Amino acid sequence: MPRPLRVLxxxxxxxxxxxxxxxxxxxxxxRDIRPLLSDRCFACHGPDAERRExxxxxxxxxxxxxxxxxxxxxxxxxxxxxxxxxxxxxxxSQDDDVRMPPRSSKRVxxxxxxxxxxxWIEQDATWEEHWSFSPIDSRELxxxxxxxxxxxxxxxxxxxxxxxAGLLPSVRASREKLIRRLTFDLTGLPPTLxxxxxxxxxxxxxxxxxxxxxxxxSPRYGERMTADWLDVARYSDTYGYQVDRDRFVWPWRDxxxxxxxxxxxxxxxxxxxxxxxxxxxxxxxxxxxxxxxRLHPQKVEGGSVPEEFRIxxxxxxxxxxxxxxxxxxxxCARCHDHKYDPLTQTEYYQLCGFFDNxxxxxxxxxxxxxxxxxxxxxxxxxxxxxLAGLETxxxxxxxxxxxxxxxxxxxxxxxxxxxxxxxDEIPVPAPIKHLAFxxxxxxxxxxxxxxxxxxxLTGDDGVGLDVGNFKRFQPFSIALxxxxxxxxxxxxxxHRSRAWTDAGSRGYELLLEDGCLSAALIxxxxxxxxxxxxxxxxxxxxxxxxxxxxxGSSRGAGLQLYIDGEPAKTKTVRDNLYKAITGGGGDNITxxxxxxxxxxxxxxxxxxxxxxxxxxxxxxxxxxxxxxxxDAIAASSRATDDGSIEKxxxxxxxxxxxxxxxxxxxxxxxxxxxxxxxESLQEIMVMRESPTKRQTYFLKRGAYDSPGDPVSAxxxxxxxxxxxxxxxxxxxxxxxxxxPSHPLTARVAVNRFWQIVFGNGLVQTPxxxxxxxxxxxxxxxxxxxxxxxxxxxxxxxxxxxxxxxSATYQQSSSVAETHLARDPENRLLSRSPSHHLPxxxxxxxxxxxxxxxxDRIGGPPARPYEVEASFKPVGRDKGDGLYRxxxxxxxxxxxxxxxxxxxxxxxxxxxxxxxxxxxSPLQAFVLLNDPQFVEASRVLAERLLMxxxxxxxxxxxxxxxxxxxxxxxxxxxxxxxxxxxxxxxAFKSDAEQTxxxxxxxxxxxxxxxxxxxxxxxxVVANTLLSFDQCVMKR
Amino acid sequence: MPEVCTGYESLAGMSRRGFLSQFGMGLGxxxxxxxxxxxxxxxxxxxxxxxxxxxxxxxxxxxxxxSGGPSQxxxxxxxxxxxEKHGTELPNEIRRGQRLTAMSGNQSSLxxxxxxxxxxxxxxxxxxxxxxxxxxxxVVDELCFIKSMxxxxxxxxxxxxxxxxxxxxxxxxxxxxxxxYGLGSESENLPAFVVMVTKDKGGQPLVSRLWGSGFLPSRHxxxxxxxxxxxxxxxxxxxxxxxxxxxxxxxxxDKLHRIQQSDNIDPQxxxxxxxxxxxxxxxxxxxxATDLASEPEHVFKEYGDDAKTPGTFAANCLQARRLAERGVxxxxxxxxxWDQHGGLxxxxxxxxxxxxxxxxxxxxxxxxxxxxxxxLVIWGGEFGRTNYCQGKLTGGNxxxxxHPRCYTMWMAGGGIKGGMSFxxxxxxxxxxxxxxxxxxxxxxxxxxxxxxDHERLTFKYQGRHFRLTDVHGHVVKDILS
Lengths: 1034, 481
Hints:
By secondary structure, chain A is of the alpha+beta class. In chain A, 39% of the residues lie in helices and 10% in strands.
């Protein structure tokens, strides 16, 4: 008999205690003692130096056996002698002031736990390093008595434990159960009737193995494995947080499907996702893999502090890395040293250092659909070629222009000669817009300007123009007089954009940053932009003439700043513009203010001019002083120094030389063509190292605005060092992770693959391999599997095959009295596990059985019926989109697919390596009433009636087989038949109800079938979709 | 014999009894199966706590969450100084360089705005209230105004998440989920934690993780009751399937499961049988609980005309009372729309019209039915609003930005002192002058009233014992009756 639940519920409501089947006479330190010390003692006597009491650590050997502070020479623990051990005396003391753990800790040791500690000390208090931090042992296969039962090495370990506990393994499951179990575990779908029949009739000894091989080759295998990885990767088709827009990341999901189907080795699978961009000669496909690290939620909410969220992204990547690949609860070390595991807060930020160095923003753009940088352009081969051709054309036209620069000297001289005879030329450049500010609208102020009146800006009231919507292939120039009242940390002088962070700054802008002029053309800040900044701050409280000229090249070198007519000394801060600077609204220039940005408060501006071409330096000088150009022309014939001739020649080419002009037009056309193609290319977020290394900081209390000391990327000291020659970047990190000597990577991986096959890991806390996690049920097996996995080149399909080929896997899952008495949780694997199928499989099962399932692999997310009923309803698809496999279901973070959620799908807000399995009545509503399941039931009935005509019993048998993979017994068949008959007469007496039922779902019903019969059979299918043997893995 | 702390529920926990406890279902479910007739009440509740940590003052909570951040100085916190200094710059000695949001933080000018609404004192307790809340004014002697609430968040997402889960970032269980986990439900056929969101309100978006269970088992997550025919997702039978047909289906299913039990004693089969029985009953109990048709006319009058329109705040308040009567542990209402960055005078007026009467009616209704003493009612949002204008102060129109440093909430019933005001803000309503109450303190107090020590209701996840209040929180003892 099962023990009453109340007894199973532990103290503090924290844990449920297992039946004592794991008991042996000897206390096992790893299994019994460290978890106890960790849970009750480490918070104050563990790795966290800040909170450590009495300078005592119970997580390190030296401290545990040292002399205590009592002053009487006693030791913390004296092996073999509890009564002389301070620790034991303290945990058994009757004195409240002395007893440990102290009352204030709200932690207690139960009498049986105290006994356990006592026994451990009596048995000489053996001490070992935490199992998962120690090297993976090479394990011998244990000897077993019943060697006939063994199929492969997995079984040695399992059977040895069972024999030790005096338990027998279960009999082999029936072939029908086996093929159902296998097909779900390896492909996530039920077997077809043909597949079942072939297997039932195959008497060859390798019949089972051939099914396994067939399934591992099926492209459905990759889909099934991917569904699991999406939880780990916190995959979502939307950005998350509040506004939660759609984002384009599904090509990464398809990358995962391909990786599993191509059996990409696990070390490569990990390396490419962590650092595909850093591999030598990285392919687009390898770079695409790194989208993994951009799948965390991203923020757009107005008013948010970008750095706060950028830090969240970095920590999310770091923590996901730790959970997914190391099984470590690293997040505990964000605000203080880890309380249980040897991870310091500094090490936390050192790990963050690997994930910090990319040119990203803390917010994505509200007003534009820009893909947050860094990005990868997704191009097919034809487009790639096309693009290369257009790039060559631009290059050719640029080369021609360059040649003209050398070959037009003669024409220049002719023009110079003409100048003397033709002096009525007026060489002042003509703007397309000129604001003289002789009149100013309040609350901005009219003040004495550089020429006549000028404007004093409030900083909150912009002056809008009606020009300025330049494209990035168009040259343009903007000139003005300005006068800043103080050294501005940040101020917007002018811009063409809808907003600052809320639009990713798309457009162009002239800012003051720390007093320096800073000009930029931007698609999305910071990673898709060019920016130049003056090397020194500009003068304060002085009128200065400022000009910004741009040549249409999308390159930093084409963007020039002038101060008082002279080219300013600038630094190119960003030089990576590869997409449009227009769009998003705010199409024209605004002076002095921008949405949620800091305006040019108290700044003076005058004579603001916009030009639709790049001015030459002489023209800028002319704008500044009103005579440079005139003088140069006047002095042209006398000019002797190269500098002035050069300047005049540039002016000549830019404004007078027809051949040069027409080449400028040809170049602009070539750039336009290239831009047009580039603007149309789809981008996806990926990882890419920033050219200038970002400094990572220790953050006090984990807060983004409390930086402490700078730290550099490194791995935690408790683990083997990074391999020789490994760079301190993500690629080096991946090399460290996949080094065969790493104690965690392979253990964590095989444990998760075990979990996929057996429902629970050998370590039941896959998210925590640390000291607070659960020790493995079969430590030797876990180590053997891990070692074997590494030795066989991290071959995932080989591992999966080994697991399902084991006799352990092929046991019956039936539960008998002995099981409940001796192995209630099945930790010893005395039978095959049973649990309800994951959400995806429950839905896919209905679609597959009915024949509705659409086979197509990959592509944009599908929107089945349920997305309409979510908390954030979105329109559903028509046609195929209703019937795709569930891993393709559109995933919206703020309102995930509700039926999937009811069936225990993970939310995917954060990395999750294990799902809850619950049983709520709300699940019954989904399986019984969700149109997806109702429609599938009806279509399944149609399919069977088409096949079997009047033979209802044959239809019922096939239906039962389709949904459970086995034939019904006579009594079961009678139950189905009775239900069918009763429902038939009910429907016969109510044609309208029947019709209503048949109309559920988009797919029209087959009106060649008698409606009540179809309805009644559909009701039977609808019922069976809730049947234990349909929804449970058995 | 070593007891190994697994942190996971055993297979035996999936039995019928286990199932019922799991979903927080009470005695009725068990009685129906004829099992466990002698269960203790602690078991019946389905909560994880064997016994409460101390005597509870409340059995349940109704949280009227006002999403967006209601302006404290236009509703509760009377600040004549702001009217005197209307239009002048926020003094630096008041602001003390504290961080502002990126929405108004770059404004060149931060002019103070006095409330355009009249304030008067009401009730025996002489509570100050603005003219926007005439109905609330009639129940002030039941309410405890906490004027010194403060939070860590300056934006909605993190702010609401902090109030609901104790952390600004996603991933933690919500208050309701903690209570469901700790106490289970008093109800036989209703979930322990129900959520209702006012329909068709714009405002800052709410997200379903706000009533999520985080790392707690998912059965503890809030069940959202929608307005309309299907209060719970797919609650109703598909078209054409009558109650009788459904009964037949479930009978057949039951028979199949009984057959299966003859050669497999897996307790999960019994659990599944119970699951479907309960589902069948819930198809009755939920519509019964959510159908307002049986409420008499005078009740609708009390809650206001809106109460007849499904999905309004008023209808949800009435609904909340019905659910409280039926033993739902935690009833969470959300009313969005309080985010008046601009156009505050007209915006807040509309919000008050939608909420004032029904909030007051709920208090009176609970009192009349003898439920108020055992029901803790909470009214308030994720933060307050700034004393200065966001954007341009033009004529009578203005807006206020988010303000985390001080704001007002009220509590009533459930062992809270009525007719009192707790905490003070400075005369500018910018910082707290006296008795600060952090969101974690509020949470500690809520748990305390339900008989729970907030430091002892924990769940071990990823090696750590998590709790609602993280490592913070103090019970606000001064407001307890």
